[in-house]
Amino acid sequence: MATQTTPRRQSHKEALLALLSDHQPHAMSELLRVGGYRYGARLMELRHEQHLNIQTIPLGGERFAYQLLPPDPVQLLLGLDHKPDRPAWAVKGGKRAMK
Description:
4 helices; disordered C terminus
């Protein structure tokens, strides 16, 4: 008897990345539909874990759109396509600053 495998369900983060991968602006309502009510947390994860440049576009009031920007070719050539682990102000003298 053959075992039947069910396809793995796409995570909210993967669904958001698929939506944004066309590099077009998308309204909050689209992100909410695809990414669930914690879509903002998933956007933050994509920005920090995968070092993606996702732009927030204010539409007026409390409405926003989001757009995945393509990587800058110059930064890619220079190897500067990643974001640092911590902001520059948190690093002092080459060592991480203690709080």
